[in-house]
Amino acid sequence: MSPAGASAGGGEVGRFAPSTTGEAHPGTLLAALLCWLDARSRGAALWLRFEDLDPQRCRPEYLVAMREALTWLGLDWDGEARQSDSANAHDEALETLAAAGLLYPCLCSRAQLGAEVLRAPDGSARYPGTCRPRPLPSAGQGGWRACPDALRLRLPAGRIELRDENGSDLSQSPAEAYGDPVVRRRDGAVAYHLASVVDDRQVGVTRVVRGRDLAPSSAVQVAIGRVLGHPAPRYRHHLLLLEARGEKLAKFHGAVGFEALAARYSAPELCGLLAQACGLRPDSDPLHPADLLSGFRWSGVREQDRPMHWDGQVLGLGD
Fold this sequence. Notes:
Helices cover 30% and strands 14% of the residues. It contains nine helices and eleven strands. A three-stranded parallel beta sheet has the order 1-2-3, covered by helices on one side. It has a three-stranded antiparallel beta sheet with strand order 4-5-6. A three-stranded mixed beta sheet has the order 9-10-11. Strand 10 (306-310) and strand 11 (315-317) form a beta hairpin. The longest helix has 17 residues, at 26-42.
């Protein structure tokens, strides 16, 4: 599978990849702004990729609303993609893994794993390999496509040496730290790690800028990419905006959505507040994303996560 699109000229390619499971919130918008500033300040191509594979949570109206929110903020893209349009590439990757004897069906439930196993670095359950000896259906029986169970990838043993551009050591032995990851869910949806690796390759992503909550699993994605013959991108992980309880602002936690934000703030006002939140400006004076480009340096971005609260009227920043 060869990369396509903006990478053909050999330059850097980045991507912003929000899930379409709800409205954009302040954390979404800050991550998009930092990803945009990184790419535009470096002259890199930048893709917007909608992660819309979860059949239970993703909705078309959320995708439309996400695009509108990012445009409203003043961000633009060199290309746009939807994960749901990459089914053939995902199937091709699964075929490659099956042909290499690296896939197996897994019957373990999430409840069973949560109760019985150790934690992985990202807080998820470390898979102990319970179903590793199980074979796929034979080719005559339909192979992996005929399997009704979740499919896991037998990760090869070994350490992945990896360092974040911010200096953090992301090196890891993924097979030991996480166990074998699910690559296709029981409901037929391709799982996050495989889809992300394949979709990055589709447009030739060389650079991944995202929140620090995803840093612990970077080595897993590099390991999957190696199995498929993909070069590893460079990584830059940044601060998160936190809710009052100290957890990441997220749709799941009911973070204030774009509709409420746009009713209270203009785009320049919210951009100024986000710039202040991440340390790019000492104040929240209104501005546009392009106003931040000339002086953008990662050394000027705050390293520590930042609390942010919504009182129903305004966003407030903590220390």
